[in-house]
């Protein structure tokens, strides 16, 4: 059952019926930093049953952004590199990774929201809840 709010109908979180069961190989074009993130996050997403085949591009984009954060930090520390350029790159990658991680349930608040199915349905004290 979905809870109705002024902002629309929320679909309850749950396992995707088409969830992948095994971690696919790391895409060959990922940098070593991005590949390390792929190996780190995919097992937990698979355990939660939240990722289907169609979501892998989204996970890949997150891993690319996370890999770019690390690469930008290493480049920024090298002498002779344009520090401002790498700071801008790193900042953009951090913003992208934050947005994608929230959608994938990789940050604490989105993880709690995805894993706590009953949290969205308890509108007892919410004066804006539609009844």
Automatic annotation (TrEMBL):
It holds the Pfam family Terminase_4. Residues 1-28 are annotated as: Disordered. It comes from the Bacteria. This is P27 family phage terminase small subunit. It comes from Paracoccus stylophorae. The lineage of its organism: Bacteria, Pseudomonadati, Pseudomonadota, Alphaproteobacteria, Rhodobacterales.
């Amino acid at each position: 059952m979905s809870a109705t709010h002024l902002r629309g109908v929320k679909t309850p979180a749950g396992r995707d019926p088409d969830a992948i069961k095994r971690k696919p190989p790391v895409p060959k074009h990922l940098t070593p930093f991005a590949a390390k993130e792929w190996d780190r996050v995919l097992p937990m997403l698979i355990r939660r049953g939240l990722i289907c085949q169609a979501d892998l591009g989204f996970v890949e984009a997150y891993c690319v952004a996370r890999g770019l954060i690390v690469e930008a930090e290493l480049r920024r520390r090298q002498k002779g590199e344009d520090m401002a350029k790498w700071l801008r790159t790193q900042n953009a990658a951090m913003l992208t990774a934050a947005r994608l991680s929230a959608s994938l349930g990789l940050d604490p608040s989105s993880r709690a929201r995805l894993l706590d199915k009953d949290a969205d349905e308890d509108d007892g004290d919410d004066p804006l809840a539609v009844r």
